[in-house]
Design a protein that fits this description.
The structure is a homodimer.
Chain A lengths: L1 E6 L4 H12 L4 E8 L7 E4 L2 E4 L1 E2 L10 E4 L3 H13 L3 E4 L28 E3 L3 H17 L1 E9 L7 H17 L29 H14 L5 E5 L9 E9 L5 H9 L4 E3 L11 H4 L5 E8 L6 E8 L3 H14 L1
Parallel strand pairs in A: 1-2, 1-6, 2-5, 6-7, 7-8, 9-10, 12-13
Antiparallel strand pairs in A: 3-4, 9-11, 11-14, 13-14
């Protein structure tokens, strides 16, 4: 039985963490919900009772064993080391420590052993990367991936609760007044798609796009993995989708790939085009398992496979993966 | 001055054809609007007067010089040869004749000379292909494309007026009743994306996906061009978007690619990430020019460029391109 803290408890991911802990009956002695000043005082249901969200301070971590962070990189950078100093193990959902060579970056189905190397902090990967790797890694083990070309279709809840509000408000406005306003994304997201997720780097890629390569290399222990990615926000509330072309060292057929993917834990193969069965984000929402389909031989690569993977980015891309990490501890 | 006929005049593309002809002040002696039985009798505005849509029959083409077809492949296959026999030149928007080696497949900015080879029918390319090639072809001329990896974000109007109705109805239903129904696409399209456009082939690709390679080869006169494509329907009313990674024979930089694209007719470069300027489908809608941005060196290819192109698929992908073909005649 552990004393658990959640930083960012009232956010989109934080609320999912609470639900996942409850659903998986994680053995909790005490639960402390923490947030920045703005959200402190809110009440959140846990196991039939209301827990008041407390304001995060340097002294919040006394008596806790494990703390889940999901309140952005700045909060993690400031407070995660304090939690470690107070004797806690931290599972951090932000990007603050993912590139730090002393911090393991873990998808429990892929590199659970890396957890053992932790010095207090374990990083949770980027959501789009985690969902893509759920299908890519088993293929890599079987056929040796060299590079991928991927395009994402990312849900607004990937931007947190404010992304959901933006899409809902634009839909409501348009319906009631015939016009809509833009508050959060650079362009209207309703009935539009926006080829920008996270901020731009000098080379023209976004940070989100480069995470696939940098985090993919670290998680798969594959320093030569290359990933050319375009990340796009779409008017979907929940679940990211990714279209992937992957090149392998060894020959691979769609049938062989499907066989490998069918025996992968955490992944459902939904792939029967004749009956219109393939993953769509609406069907992947609120499911622990990611879904993969549209598996076919890549027609532009000699040893290539195309696939389409959907996953609830609040679950496998965030809350579920973080709780799985804590379960492994 | 030409006597012009439009088959499929009341459809999404047919209506755009009428608008484009009017806007470009195409010299028309007479305009005959034709449609299948279901739409015959409808009235459509043209130059300030109402024209009644007539029922398409084998005898509809007498006295016409040019006929634009946009009523699906079956109608084109049956009636386009009859129009040719009646002495007309046909610009066909369907896929019926695109693969026919005796029929030129033309994007006027790319292969206008091919029109001269026609024997009565000129085919208009697939919308996603035409929009992608508007940016890809000038890069091919400069650097020699070998292959591309592309993912599309296709608007519902690509399925015709019924696609627009489906998205509108689902939005209205959800708002008024809290539930929505599915009539046309295999899944709900509102707040969802569907990785299927057109029907499936035995190898797991859709027909739409393979058009990029087959039509791209023909239009670019490049028989070894390879294209690995995933086509996805998104809840956008108008304008398709495509994320492309392209590999070239010769070295290429983002700067050199941008320079080539800036001097391409029919294409606007919208590419200033620091000021959040890149194409989005809402901004490309109802514009003749396609828009390209997110131009960057591909990080998984040695001689590669990534770009993001948006275009109004009812215009450049269909009606505009067809009228441009007729203008060239």
């Amino acid at each position: 039985m552990k004393n658990l803290g959640i930083v960012g408890a009232s956010g989109a991911v934080g609320r999912e963490m609470i639900k996942v802990l409850e659903r998986r009956q994680f053995p909790i002695a005490g639960l402390k919900l923490l947030a920045t000043e703005r959200s402190a005082g809110k009440k959140i249901q846990w196991a039939g009772q209301d827990i008041v969200v407390e304001k995060l301070t340097a002294n919040s971590f006394a008596g806790l064993d494990v703390v889940l962070f999901s309140a952005g990189s700045d909060v993690s950078r400031e407070y995660a080391p304090l939690a470690v100093k107070a004797g806690c193990v931290v599972a951090d959902n932000s990007s603050a420590f993912r590139a730090d060579s002393r911090v393991p970056l873990v998808v429990p189905e892929i590199n659970p052993g890396d957890i053992r190397l932790h010095r207090g902090i374990i990083a949770n990967p980027n959501c789009t990367t985690a969902i893509t790797l759920m299908a890519l890694y088993p293929l890599h083990r079987a056929f040796g991936v060299t590079k991928i070309f991927a395009s994402s279709y990312q849900a607004v809840s990937g931007s947190g609760a404010k992304g959901v509000s933006e899409l809902l408000r634009q839909a409501g406005n348009l319906f009631y007044t015939g016009v809509t306003d833009i508050r959060m994304y650079p362009y209207q997201i309703l009935y539009n798609v926006i080829p920008r997720v996270d901020s731009f780097l000098p080379d023209g890629y976004t940070r989100e796009e480069m995470k696939m390569q940098s985090e993919g290399r670290k998680i798969m222990h594959h320093p030569f993995f290359r990933a050319s990615v375009t990340c796009v926000r779409v008017p979907v509330f929940r679940s990211h989708s990714v279209a992937v072309s992957a090149e392998f060292e060894r020959p691979v057929t769609a049938q062989a790939a499907r066989k490998v993917l069918r025996r992968t834990p955490g992944l459902d193969v939904v792939d029967d085009p004749d009956r219109d069965r393939y993953p769509v984000p609406l069907n992947a929402a609120e499911k622990d398992n990611c879904q993969v389909g549209r598996i076919r031989q890549d027609c532009a690569l000699d040893n290539g496979i195309c696939f389409w993977v959907c996953g609830d980015q609040l679950l496998k891309g965030a809350a579920l993966n973080a709780v799985q990490i804590v379960e492994l501890l």
